[in-house]
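TL;DR need structure tokens for one chain.
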Amino acid sequence: MKVSYFNYHYDVEGSAIGAATQIRAIAAALTRLGHRVDVQFRTAKKPGEHRDYLGLKKIPGLRRYGHVPRLIWRNFALIREELKLLDQFRPDVVLAVSSYANFSALAASRRRRLPLVLFAEAPLEYEYRLFYPQYYRYPWLSRGLEGINVRGAGQVTCISEVLKGYLMRYEAPAAKLHVVPNGVDHLAFTPREPDPELMARWRLQDRVVIGYIGSFEFFSGVERFLALAKRIIAAHSRVVFLLVGKGRVDDAIRRGAESGGLGPHFRFAGSLPHQLIPRLLSVMDVVISPYKEDYLFYGSSMKLLEYMAAGKAALFPALGQIKEVVCDGYNGRLYEPGDHDTMALKLLELIEHEDLRLQLGAQARLTIENHWTWDIQAARLAHVLQLARENRPVERS
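>> reply
TL;DR here they are.
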């Protein structure tokens, strides 16, 4: 099967690097299954490129009210380009990542009478309201376009059951909504001995390392996290928190740790290339993701899957798809969102019992191998692509 794979992420070497990693992993897994995949990063900026749009973004009113109209107008140029791409590659099916105010893939695939599978990885209208308050959204228009794409696609894949529930408000037939979650490269992410270079760089010898890797956009409250860290460090002076990534709150954590006298127990690695993450995980004893609980948890956590593939004991809040992956006490530990007392107690338990960490890590690895690799998820996606080709909705198994 020949698949044209369109996505519309902007900063694929920066803020959207996780999405770009996901796209490349899916394409590689489909290729291993024998399919031909033409990946097109349609609106990605080139490394070092800066777009100022003739300085128009510096005009506050135009920036606020003109952003969404600009995204909509952009579709007409994208349609022309995508028609050429489809004529050149001549695919059997189009796979397009859903993007805010975008309808070019739907229009181009219809013009060429090709089946379209919409790959939904976020609730677009909800997400824009939450993360981009500086732009006026034209809510009726953005909801309308999201609905047109969901109803117009031959099949739709969602990365979680929560997201599927969100998309059902657009009244598409439930039989064409399929949950295909994220996976992990279980050959790149494996249990390994601690990397000596990283151990020396961050002075981690004879320490118990609590690790976090990812964006800080969804990080729980800074004050609550620092209070948790203070409690843990008071009980175990050998503990070090190694935080990897960037976001709006990492500087606040750094300042709070320094002012609270916790600085020697924190290491801030900043944003690092994805290919370095397996080495980073090797120096961590326990991995955490203290997601905040006050938003729709629609994601399919690639970081959780990478932690588990690396054989790490993971401590996560019981949110969304996390509860489908982690069984508390078997392959990881869970706590109720916002219950920082239970989080602290379970973290202390993991710090104090190395045998428990090893047991949870071994079961986590088996869970990934049996259910959550990219090859497993790509096989499910290939089934949906074939359904779109046959133009027949069937109930999800």
